[in-house]
Specification:
18% strand; membrane; alpha+beta; PilN domain-containing protein; Gyrase A, domain 2; rod-shaped; transmembrane; 234 residues; 4-stranded antiparallel β-sheet
Length: 234
């Protein structure tokens, strides 16, 4: 039993020499074909670059126009704001004058004392059995400007650390020494009262206690209503 060769035979294997192949295309033609392909590639690449350049130019132009439009709008807005600001120039000038006056008033009235509140605190310290017959109040802003608490002979007794700006001298009568002592104790508790010195004696006829006392007043009694740095200062 014989085997059949099922492989297809190539036609050039049928006869000797049929399998020889040669390319007789001229080299000039091959070179021209390659050059044509290269030219196509270069044209396509240049076209792509040109398209990108055109697209970039258009994009930059649009952005430039948008920036010009925004700048023009902002310039118009600034001109409008400046025009409105000029209409309020009088208000600004008045406000500056007010601030200047406040500063001057603060310097002028820096030693202003809330006298009503201070005198009311003195009256509140009086017991029912003690009466004031004479009151002498002396206040000065010179010591405050000098920044010294040594404005009186009694200032050495002051340990409050505040500046003494005045002195108060009181005279009166009381029904007894205890009542007067209570009055003096009440005075010593008032803010701004320092260096309190009492002096009293027994009356012979009426048997009332005649007393005198003096004390210094510190800068704690200042009102600060005219301070320039105080919000809402008058």
């Amino acid at each position: 039993m014989s085997t059949v060769d099922l492989e297809p035979r190539q036609i050039w294997n049928a006869m000797p020499g049929w399998g020889i192949v040669t390319d007789l295309t001229p080299p000039e033609l091959i070179a021209s074909r390659k050059l044509a392909v290269l030219r196509k590639v270069l044209v396509i690449a240049l076209s792509a670059v040109l398209a990108l350049c055109v697209a970039a130019y258009v994009l930059v132009s649009l952005q430039h126009r948008a920036a010009d439009s925004a700048l023009s709008s902002q310039t118009n807005a600034n001109l409008a704001l400046q025009s409105r600001t000029n209409s309020y120039s009088d208000v600004v000038r008045i406000e500056q004058n007010i601030q200047q006056i406040k500063g001057q008033l603060s310097g002028l009235m820096g030693s202003d004392v809330d006298a009503e509140t201070f005198l009311a605190s003195l009256a509140k310290a009086l017991p029912p059995t003690v009466a004031v017959s004479k009151e002498d109040v002396t206040l000065s802003g010179a010591a405050l400007k000098a920044g010294s608490s040594q404005s009186s002979a009694n200032a050495a007794l002051d340990t409050s650390g505040h500046v003494v700006i005045g002195k108060v001298q009181l005279e009166g009568l009381s029904t007894g020494f205890a009542e007067f002592s209570t009055f003096a104790d009440n005075l010593s508790k008032i803010t701004g009262v320092v260096d309190l010195i009492p002096n009293f004696s027994q009356a012979n006829v009426s048997k009332l206690v005649s007393w005198k006392l003096s004390f210094n007043v510190t800068d704690q009694v200042l009102s600060h209503r005219f301070d320039a740095s105080k919000n809402g200062g008058k």
